[in-house]
Amino acid sequence: MSQERPRRLGRGLEALIPGIATATSPVNTSDYQRLQVTRIRPNPYQPRREFDDAELDELQASMRVSGLLQPIAVRRASDGFELISGERRLRAATRLGWTDIPAIIRDVDDRTLLTLALVENLQRADLNAVDEARGYRRLSEEFGFTHAQIAEAIGKDRTSITSLLRILQLPARVLEIVEKGKLSAGHARALVSLEDERRAVALANEAIARDLSVRELERRVRELQQRPEPKRSRAPATTTSATTDSPVIRRMEDELRRRLQTDVKIRLSGPERGSIEVAFYSAEDLERVLDLVLGPTREST
User: Fold this and answer.
1) pLDDT tens, residue by residue, 135-182
2) Rounded to an integer, what distance in angstroms lies between the CA atom of residue 85 and that of residue 142?
3) Is 75 helix (H, G, I), strand (E, B) or coil?
4) Which residues are CB-neighbours of 55 under 8 A, at least 6 positions away?
5) For the CA atoms of 87, 88, 94, 97, what is the dihedral angle to 10 degrees?
6) Catalytic residue among 87, 120, 132, 152
7) Which residue ranges form the domains of the chain, and what is each CATH number?
8) β-bridge mates for residue 6, sequence order
9) Cβ count near 119 (within 10 Å)
10) What whole-number distance in Å separates Cα of residue 175 and Cα of residue 13?
11) Is 87 tagged catalytic?
């Protein structure tokens, strides 16, 4: 596998936000202080929602031995200071029991705060695709940046920004899977074209279960789009109500979906009678479901 080229970041930050203070900007002595950790609150525009405990442990161990090699950056707030960049360093310092920390004080507005936080995380190259897309959406919706402006600031082409933003159209359950790193941004992009939420969730779970590549997932999406959704027989009103309204039935359906990695419906025809409907979208998919239900040693048909 060829080595990934380093990201080209921040090329247009100064053009996009005139007067922005970057990492290479000169620092006045008065801007550099040791601040009480308790007076610093998190960046409200931090795009990253989860921080890896193993990475924090590693950083904490390094800071215990060598101290903090790079100060955090903050801006003044009414009740103290607000973090611009360096949340991992601040968290590690808190875990070490430090009472104060070296910091550079900058005067920045909200959109600069979000842009710098986003760029800092992208420079670490491990911001998940959903958090990255949400950061771009905030730049667009809250501060009026065009996709072209975001691309210039981040160092990507405009089509990449637009394409990544589209994954936010996916169902919440699929976005959660991507956030946890079980599927890549490429997998997410492949699923966007599926308009049916149940199919998108089922196919996302199938991609995980079968370790599908992006190309294989794209092929499965095309197969589904060429087939109409299976018609469901009209059920009595009592059946629909019991299936939709009962938390117990919904929980059972969710358990079966997770197990079979496809859409499942439980339909009741009486207090203790009913049927289970399991969807499949290709002959290959049917074989996979049968293997899960009957076991891999079943007799082949």
Assistant:
1) 888 878 877 888 888 887 777 788 888 989 999 999 988 998 998 888
2) 20
3) strand
4) 88
5) -140
6) 87
7) 13-165 (3.90.1530.10), 171-225 (no CATH), 237-294 (no CATH)
8) none
9) 21
10) 29
11) yes
